[in-house]
Amino acid sequence: MEAVIISCGTELVTGQCVDTNSAWLSEQLTAQGVRVVEHITIGDDIEDIRDAVRWSLDRAELVIITGGLGPTGDDLTREGIAAAIGQPLEESADALGRIRAFFERWRREMPESNRIQAMIPKGCTVIPNPRGTAPGIAYQNGTRRLYSLPGVPAEMREMFEAAIRPTLRSSLGDACMLGARLLCYGISEAKLGEAIADLMARGRNPLVGTTASNAILTVRVLARGDDAESARRLLDADCNEIRRRVGRVVFGEDDETLQDAVAALLIEQHKTIATAESCTGGLLAKRLTDIAGSSAYFLRGYVTYSNESKTQLLGVSAELISELGAASEAVAKAMAVGCQRAAGSDFALSITGIAGPGGGTPPEKPIGLVYVGLADSAGVTVHRFLMGEHLTRAEIRDRTCKSAINLLRLRLLSDR
Amino acid sequence: MEAVIISCGTELVTGQCVDTNSAWLSEQLTAQGVRVVEHITIGDDIEDIRDAVRWSLDRAELVIITGGLGPTGDDLTREGIAAAIGQPLEESADALGRIRAFFERWRREMPESNRIQAMIPKGCTVIPNPRGTAPGIAYQNGTRRLYSLPGVPAEMREMFEAAIRPTLRSSLGDACMLGARLLCYGISEAKLGEAIADLMARGRNPLVGTTASNAILTVRVLARGDDAESARRLLDADCNEIRRRVGRVVFGEDDETLQDAVAALLIEQHKTIATAESCTGGLLAKRLTDIAGSSAYFLRGYVTYSNESKTQLLGVSAELISELGAASEAVAKAMAVGCQRAAGSDFALSITGIAGPGGGTPPEKPIGLVYVGLADSAGVTVHRFLMGEHLTRAEIRDRTCKSAINLLRLRLLSDR
User: Are A237 and A267 contained in the same domain?
Assistant: First the structure.
């Protein structure tokens, strides 16, 4: 079965709001084995709604439209659907009764303007809305079905669960679609694509694709099966194969972060960490404490932004700083060592570099040059990164922290 | 002028990602007086892309398509556009040169798979991508124009600014639409709405509306004028009136942050700041160093996550912590005083509290209870906040830092 999702609202086409309903509905439908072929977003305009509904009913068996069912003059989805299916609007006694009951429950008078929400196209049925005044509208023509739901996410979701999901199960049979996302760090999208090119072949089941966002690469795997078990088997086989090919590059699944992965390893190995940051200004400590329960492994962080604080708090020699500059391998090393000693932690991560947009002195010290130190009681290693002068200050700080956390992750994996 | 925006990506129609590019582009186009009539989202499918491009070029003078320009097999926007306009793909020497140069800049080998990104439909021109390997594609047929940009938001935005926005200005004529956003902190949306209700009347010019996001309230003002000067006059009059009514609640405009406002005040007054954080784990220091040039006012930050570190680094008495708990007014006070003294800064901000999701002991110490201390060499004040148990850990940490930075902002404004 194929589906089209329509979102209706001038606030969407003017960019004042981001449409999250379509993604949520798509996720639900995809998980049920429905192929969502298109999202359409239009403003509150009768002709645009009419045309979009007509086109969608032509294109797919299932059409869901959200938004435009409110009581004000700019809510025109009712009219648009009526025009698309060539039926007049009629007052539904069922819908009016439900709207009245909604107000009675809160002991309020029903404003006359809410009465318009009881108008539905002739031949359509009402979808009850337990959380609001806008009833939904259901239309069926042969095997083609259209559902109109309110734009308020909580109302839309509850009505989808109650009125639409049950009908999908019965029309799909046992078929099932399952998805997974493998998150990767420390590889280019091109290299990742080369490593799994055969799995990404068009039309293959599972469907495998990659996306890049802020230096994190995501491999999406979507498996279709005749039942849940066979979909799960296909999904797991591909996920295992991808992990086998790219190894430790995969740090997590779905919504996991690099710090989630590191936190789990630190807790598993009963290890503690402290941080000493210059150019990232606290972001590394922030990430490592994003996780509830981080006090089990995170002891303390130093944001040694001034040179004086590097000397006072971490014992970095002032001569070293004036001789080699704060953004240097030797200073990163001294920061990590000083931090580990002062904190008495198992590990210490240090960061110093040039986040920009000013302060770069190419070619020796361009913007984006960053040193990350990793110390334990036995020694220290320092890694040099060139994050790229084309990146913003925020991006350089973000990627520096990701690289630092990833270094600790790889270290903990090696120790295991 | 009317526009259609197309987003391309299977991750979008399956609901694995929310499309934010279309909203951003719509906001930019709307502010330039372009009417965005529709957003279309489709998967990585040549026929679907072809049909969407054809339909859109029929419907509107301006079409922008994002996504699907990567180097892997599921990136099919190039092919889809070529099919829509009936032209073959050709390797562009210009594009290939830029991709090679991108890799050379980082002294890396160009993977062979990136070569496909230099393929563009015959008759189209290349839009340079300074931040990535995917060049954009521009197509013109009479007054109809199509721009294809990468899906990575940062790349897409920079290329829009460089290649598309300048062409819009010239095609719009004298009529002008100007927008502004006034950013507010420390007032409820209902109170703000009451204060400016008359300005928010429907159909009024300028159009005034409010939105709330993560405790920041935004007042949007959109003014239409026959020329730039008259639009500017209307816009400024409304902005001034809103500022007059709500006063210091307005901390900035457009994309400014609370830390931007505080940084400007600190620099103006030649003052310095240091921080001591427990539950926010470095986020406060991170925000205060978000700004280029923050070394002018930010000296150092302590992330005293363990109780031991509070005692060792800030001199908070261990008895005080064991008696009253780390999340207490007295500890916040001692942290701020200890931090100011150790750093020798003009001001010190301290934060201690319960970010959750565990660790709350209601009614005395529920999740979301936070103390913020503000010290200078003359003394210290502590503010108690109840952020709300319904908030997530990330939200509590976010709002705590906003409140702390806002306290410093109000203090600096009073000192002025």
Answer: no
- Does residue A201 sit at the B interface (CB-CB below 8 Å)? yes
What lies within 8 Å, CB to CB, of B41 at 6+ separation is A22, A38, A39, A40, A41, B6, B7, B8, B9, B12, B13, B19, B22
Q: What is the DSSP letter of B122?
A: T
Residue A198 is which amino acid?
A: D
Q: Is the pTM of this model over 0.95?
A: no
Tell me how many domains chain A contains: 3
Would the pLDDT of B252 be above 90?
yes
Q: Is B180 left (phi over 0), alpha (psi -120 to 50) or beta?
A: beta
Tokens of A386: 């060139």
Confidence band of B213 (pLDDT split at 50, 70, 90): confident
- Which three-class secondary structure state does DSSP give residue A398? helix
pLDDT at site A33:
80
Nearest C-alpha neighbor of B355 from the set B326, B404, B389, B381: B389
Q: What tens digit of pLDDT does each residue of B398-407 get?
A: 999 999 999 9
Instruction: Give the range of the structural domain holding residue A224, as residue numbers without chain letter.
Output: 176-253
Q: Is B169 left (phi over 0), alpha (psi -120 to 50) or beta?
A: alpha
Query: What percent of chain B has pLDDT above 90?
Result: 76
Q: Verify whether the Cβ–Cβ distance A286 to B281 is below 8 Å.
A: yes
CA distance A40 to chain B (A): 5
Of residues A87, A265, A287, A255, the one with CA closest to residue A179: A255
**In chain A, whose CA is at the least distance from the CA of B306?**
A299
The reply to whether residue B306 touches residue A295, judged by beta carbons under 8 angstroms, is yes
ipTM of the complex: 0.80
At A58, which CATH number?
3.40.980.10
**What distance in Å separates the CA atoms of residue B324 and residue B359, rounded to the nearest whole number?**
15
Same-domain status, B183 and B118:
no
Chain A residues whose beta carbon lies within 8 Å of the beta carbon of residue B71: 189-190, 193
* A313 contact B CB<8A: yes
Per the CB < 8 Å rule, is A309 touching B300? yes
